Amino acid sequence: MGEETMVLRVLLRRALAGEELVNVPLHFEAGVLERYRGAPGFSLIRTDSVGRIKKEGGWALDVGIAADETLLHAFAGDLVRLPPEEREHWASFAVALPSSRMFLQMRLAPGACHDDGEPRKWE
């Protein structure tokens, strides 16, 4: 697991606890589904590119399925409505898309000193 993924997962936990970023899609390894396959009380249905995970008498989560089926994505606003143990499970499968580790760390610890080189014109 890359450092970007670890930082993203911390950020994701904070965002989900605060019920922010409602319509931001977040990405997850498809392995997140293994917990629910064959588990009593859970059902998984899908089309070509959209799926639903449902706990009978409990919650449901709609997800997008990436073309190669290795990644899923769901909206943060839907994820915050899951029980805390489910949010933790999904956060542990979060995937960092190509991103700046420094930018993520700056958001995680905004008051901290971050050395990322001299400011320069962006051309």
Strand order of the largest sheet: 1-5-4-3-2
Please report the distance between the alpha carbons of the first and last residues.
Answer: 32 Å
Given helix and strand content, the structural type is: alpha+beta
Basic shape: elongated
Order of helices and strands: HEEEEEHHH
Question: Share of helix among residues?
Answer: 25-40%
Q: Output the number of helix runs.
A: 4
Give average pLDDT, whole number. Answer: 87
Count the strands?
A: 5
| Strand fraction | 15-25%
Contiguous low-pLDDT stretches (5 residues minimum) are none
Radius of gyration: 16 Å
Biggest β-sheet description: 5 strands, antiparallel
Describe the structure.
It is a single chain. With 123 residues, this protein is of the alpha+beta class. A five-stranded antiparallel sheet has the order 1-5-4-3-2. It starts with a helix and ends in a 15-residue tail after the last helix. The model has no long low-confidence stretch (mean pLDDT 87).
